[in-house]
Amino acid sequence: MEDYLRRNFAVESKRTSEEALMRWRSAVRVVKNPRRRFRMVADLAKRAEAERKRVKLQDWKSVSSLNYFGLNIFGQEKLRIALYVQKAALHFIEGMILNSLMTTGSREVEFKLSHNVQRAGFRIEPDELGNIVRSHGKKTLESHGGIGGLAKEVSVSLNDGVVSKKVMHNEIKVWSSSDALKLLDYFAIAVTIIVVAVPEGLPLAVTLSLAFAMKKLMSDKALVRHLSACETMGSASCICTDKTGTLTTNHMVVDKIWVCNETKTIKSNDNKDILKSAIPEAGFNTLLQSIFQNTGSEVVKGKDGKTNILGTPTETALLEFGLLLGGDFKVDRQESAIVKVEPFNSVKKKMSVLVSLPNKGGFRAFCKGASEIILEMCDKIVNAKGEAVTLSKEQRKITTDVINSFACEALRTLCLAYRDIDSKSNADSIPDDKYTLIAVVGIKDPVRLGVKEAVQTCLAAGITVRMVTGDNINTAKAIAKECGILTDDGLAIEGTDFRSKSPQEMKELIPKLQVMARSSPTDKHTLVTQLRNVYREVVAVTGDGTNDAPALHEADIGLAMGIAGTEFCGKRILKLSGENATAILNTFIFNTFVFCQVFNEINSRDIEKINVFRGIFDSWVFMGVMVSTVVFQIVIVEFLGTFAGTVPLSWDLWLGSVLIGAVGLLVAVFLKCLPVETGQEAVTAEHHDGYEPLPTGPDRA
Q1: Where is each Cation-transporting P-type ATPase C-terminal domain found (predicted)?
Q2: CA 688 from chain center: how many Å?
Q3: 45 in a domain, yes or no?
Q4: With bands split at pLDDT 50, 70 and 90, how would you rate the model's confidence at 630?
């Protein structure tokens, strides 16, 4: 039996005959899923068909050869072959001539110029010029007289560029109707090229260039929400920027305070007892109440036991100062119940709160906000003894000078005030007058590193930079001078003065305008509208708050600074972010992809079986590869962030990556359960291992 099989069905490992393959294929064709079993072997039917075509082609060539030598068969084919032979001979002769030119460097054998080349005024054929470029041969170039000789042959001057035929013959002033028709033809050809080429290639070229620009901006931590923003930003001629959080770091601390007619400089290492001893007790308690009661922020304890403040930078700076004075946020808040709150808004530029007084009865209103606005609401002031006295004109002037001196030091100034209200008064509204001034606070917000250099770069590029802020005008001017925005001939104006100007007056002052202080969202929107509509400027607006949303929408391009930046998207908007949200997303996608590959390798252990985990620990090589892949992935993500561009992931993101990768197991099970169509000759009897038994005996084979 073995001799019979070896003699009739022995198949060598390589270069076996088709006859042996056909015998073997015929013997084992009755199997389960023949399409899957023989999907990686040669298709003998196609191979036989290809052999038949090859034999037929050889017979046809033999007939064609006989026809070429005089037999009257296929006359048209004879003509076609003759043309090919002639063309090949011409190419051979041309190649021999070019080879002679390149090797000898002489021009004894020259091309005969065609009529079109001579008519165009050239002295060299395009093919010869192309061969010179391809050959890179020095001798060939020297045979044409070098660069100068070649330039003359193509009618180009090395000094003047392309020289027309009229210039060569001194006929530049002589023009005829035929010359006009030639120019018209040239114009038509140029328009045709533009019409044909530009619609095909321009969209792709523009899209690719904008995509590269977007990628470059992402490396600078700028998230582009519209591709056109990359192009528009390059055309910007004016930038209207906010101050707080854009030009400055938005990390505020109380630097100076004027309370009880004394100015105190605050340092982070100052002892609370020293500050407390410098302020009378009555004034000290009122100051702490105004800080802790009139706030929208919270003081919480972190998991590490440290005190954290949740709120805006200005509120955070005031609460940090209150804690530095030794105050207790929770105790002071529980002493009085809050009755009514008026949150800060950019129009009134103040925040007020009304609280009840449990011991004395009645109510007390606290107010804080823009220094000059709060000062106008006050008719009393806390004196050096901590008592409330009438605010005289002289005292008002002293307070104004203190505010201006703080502002000139680039400090953000706020005033704190309070007013006691009788219990019989209406507690449904918070009053706007007759307050007692407690203190003037100077908050420092340092300028960002590199801002001055960036402003100078914009000015050198012809881009006008204007600061539009809600701060005091002296503070705005000091910051603008420090950043290089405000010059000696520039104009600084307050929002109230700007909005009172007529359209003609605005038209005259806007070109000189460099700083706008105490501005409202409407003022910024009006400025941007005037710049775009009247002066036809391409305006970019930067901002980090919802009050900047109208101007961001009106601008040609809006730049929302940081995660706290407004989500109100303009027509074209960039979002500048120092946070690593994008890096986390990219790392999560990369991590998920790796785990998908891990589970895909597990699925590939046995493509036919559903339980791919059976016997998985029997192969130490496979387990080593799997464990090494997972370990290396953990090391790359958690410890090699600088090298691999990744950031550490939290446990929930790790779990999400693994679960998403494990979905591949379920997909594989579903695909393996799908029935596969078999051939008509397949036997339906099942076998314990999924294969059908081969027929036995020489007759069955």
Answers
A1: 578-672
A2: 58
A3: no
A4: confident
Which of 608, 605, 602 minimizes the C-alpha distance to 33?
A: 608
Same domain, 355 and 435: yes
Q: Are 439 and 375 in contact (CB under 8 A)?
A: no
Rounded CA-CA distance 309/226 in Å is 35
- Is residue 111 assigned to a domain? yes
Q: Does 330 share its domain with 268? A: yes
Residue 90 has pLDDT above 80, yes or no: no
At which of 399, 428, 444 does a domain end?
Answer: 444
Beta-bridge partners for 19: none
217, 563 Cβ separation under 8 angstroms: no
253 phi/psi in degrees, rounded to 5: -140, 150
Model confidence band, residue 22 (pLDDT cutoffs 50, 70, 90): confident
Cβ atoms of 345 and 363 closer than 8 Å? no
∠517-256-350 over CA atoms, to 5°?
45
Whether residue 425 is found in the same domain as residue 296: yes
> For residue 671, what are the CA distances in angstroms to 603, 607, 666?
11, 10, 9
The verdict on 368 and 257 lying in the same domain is: yes
**Residue 546 buriedness (CB in 10 A; 0-12 / 13-18 / 19+):** middle
**pLDDT tier for residue 400 given thresholds of 50, 70 and 90:** very high
pLDDT for 609: 78
**Alpha carbon of residue 25 to chain centroid:** 58
Whether 309 and 337 map to the same domain: the answer is yes
Each residue of 251-295: pLDDT tens digit? 888 888 898 888 888 876 655 666 677 778 888 888 888 888 888
499, amino acid identity:
R
Domain of 128, in residue numbers: 78-168
Query: Does residue 34 belong to any structural domain of this protein?
Result: no
Highest mean pLDDT among 29-33, 172-176, 226-230, 663-667: 663-667
531 & 614 share domain: no
Q: What pLDDT was estimated at residue 99?
A: 60
| N residues, the chain | 701
Cβ–Cβ < 8 Å for 549, 563:
no
Cβ atoms of 27 and 694 within 8 Å: the answer is yes
**Can you spell out the DSSP letters for 195-230?**
HHHHHHHHHHHHHHHHHHHHHHHHHTTEEESSTHHH
Taking CA atoms, 451 is separated from 6, 78, 588, in Å, by 87, 81, 34
Residues contacting residue 209 through CB under 8 Å, at least 6 positions apart? none
Q: What is the pLDDT of residue 76?
A: 61
- Whether 61 shows a pLDDT value over 80: the answer reads no
How many domains does the structure of the chain reveal?
5
- Whether 166 contacts 137, CB under 8 Å: no
DSSP-assigned letters across all residues of 577-614? --S-HHHHHHHHHHHHHHHHHHHHHHHTT-SS-S-TTT
Within 8 A by CB and 6+ apart from 488, the residues are none
Torsion over CA of 575, 577, 583 and 588, rounded to 10 degrees?
-60
Beta-bridge partners for 561? 576
Q: Is 481 inside any structural domain?
A: yes
Residue of 397 and 652 predicted with greater confidence: 397
Give residue-wise pLDDT tens across range 530-539. Answer: 998 888 888 9
Verify that 459 and 418 share a domain, yes or no.
no
Across 403-412, b (16+ Cβ under 10 Å) vs e yields bbbbbeebbb
Q: What is the mean predicted confidence (pLDDT) over 78-89?
A: 74
Cα separation, 666 vs 542, whole angstroms: 49
Q: Find the CATH number of the domain harbouring 500.
A: 3.40.50.1000
Give catalytic residue positions.
242
CATH number, domain of 352, equals 3.40.1110.10
End position of a domain, from candidates 548, 576, 604: 576
Count other C-beta atoms under 10 Å from residue 438's C-beta: 26
Same domain, residue pair 598 and 535: no
